[in-house]
Amino acid sequence: MAYCPGFFIIVASLPFMLISLSESSLDNGNLKTSSHANKHDKVTLSLYYESLCPYSSSFISNDLAQAFENDLHTILKLRLVPWGNAIIYDNRTECPHGEEECYLNTIEGCVIDLWPHMMKHFNFIDCTEKRSSQLGPVKTTEDWEQIWIPCSEEFGMSADLIKECYDSGYGLELQLKYANETASLNPPFDFLPWVVVDDFPLYDDYQNYTKYVCEAYKGEHKPKACKDQHFSSSGVARKASLASEVRKPEGGPPPRPSPRTDCCKPESTVPKASPDVEP
């Protein structure tokens, strides 16, 4: 299967330091019962995605949601990173699927930060992804709000707090952190969604994430989702030892980068994305 190479993110005209996401935004509100994993035993699953990439949306709603339908979530530390092939140029973000995607990436990042409990923000993002797929492309901010506001109401989240995060510029700060983290992936991502389990990229086997999470889990309380499954060492054998390369301009300012619209996942297996939204 041929995959589109991941877009190399160039950050131009906006200097900022590499900042790791704060621990407070990544704390998943661990359930504290004897049948659940100790927080130190939990397996980290990081999902790098775009809010309007149809393959990302499909994975979130059809695959990753299953971790909350069974008990796999009890051993998970889930990290969602809404950035993907977006770029930063001239003090603004540009996204492959238009301004609507940049807006929704930021809204979802705000919700992750405001409600760090993983089930809380995952439910919102799952709802938002489903609604954006159902409503299709929209052109105005008011229409964009109708994608996510019903989801915030459904899960008891303050729409005013989310808007304040977006309007204040704090949402953009979160996006810059996601941009840095995505650019620092080693190896770089090849397509979206890009799933990493405890620093092990799953490549095209990402839909079998349960297998890798269960293999990585070293705690005492094995969830039902991991029982009666037979694992092999083939997954470990596929682990890449690739080193990322930093592209440095030979002189002068870097060229204006162009967002990619063909870099979610192979078109042969999933319907194409909706047309881009015009600014």
Q: Quick recap of the structure?
A:
This protein starts with about 20 loop residues before the first helix and ends in a 42-residue tail after the last helix. Helices cover about 35% and strands about 10% of the residues. Helix 4 (about 100-115) packs across helix 7 (about 160-165) and helix 4 crosses helix 8.
Query: By CATH's scheme, which homologous superfamily applies?
Result: Glutaredoxin
Helix- and strand-based class?
alpha+beta
CATH architecture descriptor name: 3-Layer(aba) Sandwich
Number of H/I helices:
10
Kindly provide the radius of gyration, computed on alpha-carbon positions and rounded to a whole number of angstroms.
19 Å
Envelope shape: globular
User: What fraction strand?
Assistant: 5-15%
The side-by-side strand order for the widest beta sheet comes to 2-1-5-6
The CATH topology label is: Glutaredoxin
The overall average pLDDT, rounded, is: 77
Largest sheet properties:
4 strands, mixed
Q: What is the straight-line distance between the termini?
A: 34 Å
Number of strands: 6
Ranges where pLDDT stays below 50 over 5 or more residues in a row are 1-35, 232-257, 265-279
> Can you tell me the number of structural domains?
1
Q: Regarding CATH, which class?
A: Alpha Beta
| Portion in helices | 25-40%
Give, in order, the helices and strands.
Answer: HEHHEEEHHHHHEEHH
Can you put this structure into words, describing what you see?
There is one protein chain. The protein is α+β, with helices and mostly antiparallel strands and 279 residues long. It has one domain: Glutaredoxin, CATH 3.40.30. 37% of the residues lie in helices and 9% in strands. It is built from 10 helices and 6 strands; from the N terminus they run H-E-H-H-E-E-E-H-H-H-H-H-E-E-H-H. The protein has helices spanning 23-26, 54-64, 66-69, 99-114, 118-135, 141-154, 159-167, 170-183, 209-216, 234-237, and strands spanning 43-49, 76-82, 87-89, 92-94, 194-197, 200-201. It has a 4-stranded mixed sheet with strand order 2-1-5-6. Helix 4 crosses helix 7, helix 4 crosses helix 8 (170-183) and helix 5 (118-135) packs across helix 6. It is globular and about 50 Å long. It starts with 22 loop residues before the first helix and ends in a 42-residue tail after the last helix.
